[in-house]
Amino acid sequence: MGRYQQYQREVKEKPPGVHPVWRGIGFMLMGTISVMAYAGANLLVDANKTQQWIDVPPGLQRGLPWAPDIYAEVVVAFFLAIIGFGLVTIIYSLVYQLSRPEDVLKRK
Question: How many CB atoms lie within 10 A of CB 45?
């Protein structure tokens, strides 16, 4: 090939990215799961007061004057959120396996 000779190069097309609607759905799921986790934590902490399922450490029993159980609720909400996000991830992976696009199958 000479110094001034031109050549054609194949331009690869970029694979399509994530549709913006899915980003919006993911954002809504983050908020929904977080609110549901806190609501569930509130119910579980209140039920634990009457049923005495688990001994709560004294450090978690003292909270703020306007929210006496806030520390226990935040800890329980964190674990409920982890469970919720894990379930959504498992469900998404199962659905994606059943409905993945054909071009993903051919790239292997």
Answer: 22
